[in-house]
Amino acid sequence: MARHTPVMAVMVAAARKAARGLQRDFGEVENLQVSLKGPANFVTAADKKAEKTLFEELSKARPGYGFLMEEGGTIEGSDKSHRWLIDPLDGTTNFLHSIPHFAISIGLERDGQIVAGVVYNPISDELFIAEKGQGAFLNDRRLRVAARRELANTVVATGIPHIGRPGHQRFIAELGVVMNEVAGVRRMGSAALDLAYVAAGRYDAYWEANLAPWDLAAGIILVREAGGFVSDLNGRDDVLNSGGVIAGNETIHRELAKALKRAHAAS
Ligand code: IPD
Ligand code: CA
Ligand code: CA
Predict the structure, then answer these.
(1) pLDDT at 1
(2) Distance, CA 125 to ligand 1 centroid (Å)?
């Protein structure tokens, strides 16, 4: 995809504009106003500013499209077919700890299907994009999921529930099985980048529970357009509603799903 389609150009321009504020705020994170949405669930002035910029840019370019945003919630649009799913800063805890691993995530849904996605890390300047039928790209380099077929050779990413989050026992049971069958487990703190790294073949697979639609939307189409498989934790295609995800190439997706099932059966 040498040239971005018109809608992709709109999404990339909005992400880059919001990123400028995040780059500035990241440099002075210690002065940032922070509030708590729940135990260890931070929101900063940077999240809100970035979301405001994304909302303004996207609604200016596509008046009438609806929104589902992490901080601002739902905005109904006059165009009932199209909805933006926005996470202005995925990886807030990393951001607050000056860990340069976070991203802006923009998903576009048409008639209930995710048709385009952007995940942009403003510090590494890594722009992951995908559009239905057009493939997935990192800074214009075409992406393919990794080709490993043996779980024992894989690096798998996940999300560990923290204080105040549900599913600790379930996760411990899952990790107990998976860590015994893979070459490495990674917890990096951004679901959107976890999925983007699967699309880029950096991780062989990823699983996590209790995610929100804005964490997942853009990442789902990145993995699928890079030739990967994405399902919910029961192997069905209900990722956004269930909030659970397994992603990887066809073989590793299947093997990881089987390992998680064994963990649930044993716990
Ligand atoms: C969080 C990150 C994290 C995941 C959490 C999400 P946020 O998003 O994606 O990796 O484990 O479940 O809530 O809160 O930083 O936007
Ligand atoms: Ca998030
Ligand atoms: Ca967020």
Answers:
(1) 47
(2) 20
